[in-house]
């Protein structure tokens, strides 16, 4: 059964700059941390890089035409910081700004609202060489970059997302080492998380100078529950919730730094980078919160990787996600449980009384998609996943959560970070050797769902 979504609900699709653009040395763009990371042996699947990706930099008109065929209300995409402000300093790069200028105009000409993400992980390598997100200066430079982007696009772009998934930027980038820049640190990862939040706050100040701008941030969040009722698992779940959610939701939505974080990380950090007066900047009111969610977490207690508390990374918490071997998983190995999205949205509403309206800014699944002999790409598991998760959004709305829109991840198959090109999330299949785009079954299903919702809202 399909459950109706709220009237004026926004349907969209999402992408990210390094994952689709390619043209990494074109028109003044300088290397990002992901260029460096992906060109380092052993970091990505088969040594894949974003050098070409989906060649969106040259094929953007074709991709906007696909969005038009899909019938979306909005398109969420990110700007490449090293394309707009090479090396993260100085004036804006005219050629890079021209690219996004044309893209925005084409979207608006087709009646598609641009939702612009300022940072989706492609930090200029020059800034990382100076300390990266571990340092306060990076947050300040992010605000300068925000000003450049807004000065060029703000007359037409009204919906701005400061950061995408700062947990991944900090914890996967500076603690586990699975993402760029590939560091494995304790205090450095915590400082990165904090300075990302500060960068969000400083960028919000810049954008607020424009009274027409609508400002949000996108957090990747999970509903977290213990794997059992044992005190050990319950405590492990509390730690996991703190690390995955509260490190960002508490400062941004409530103006506080989590007490459990101060206690848990006391052996690896003196928190000297934390300034209490920053919390008012970080927690400035938002017009919306972007939520990325793919799966829920069931957490069990395990042994620490490092016996010495002072040598642990920020993600070495004595916790482990438990996945039911009998349950369905995606190509990424992630469990499929649509009701987790409903539970997450209700948790946000109950935990943060001033929660702004919510957009689901990413949701989707990787499937082992193949081209059939007739040239089609059938992906029934993705169709079912999208159906069930949209129903979960509708259920949360019926429970009183103010959910305004849903952006499917992703428009295109693309460079999936450390997983390279082996994982396919797109509504559109990309044949990488030829760059041919093939809309999948899910593309047609999503288009029809959008049309049905619009018809229902008019009736």
UniProtKB/TrEMBL annotation:
GO terms for cellular component: cytosol. One of its GO terms (biological process) is cellulose catabolic process. It comes from the Bacteria. It catalyses: Hydrolysis of terminal, non-reducing beta-D-glucosyl residues with release of beta-D-glucose. The keyword Hydrolase applies. Substrate binds at residues 19, 120, 164, 294, 409, 416-417. It is an enzyme of class 3 (hydrolase). One of its GO terms (molecular function) is beta-glucosidase activity. Its EC number is 3.2.1.21. The active site is at residues 165, 362. Gene3D superfamilies: Glycosidases. Keywords: Carbohydrate metabolism, Cellulose degradation, Glycosidase, Hydrolase, Polysaccharide degradation. Belongs to the glycosyl hydrolase 1 family. This is Beta-glucosidase. It comes from Branchiibius hedensis.
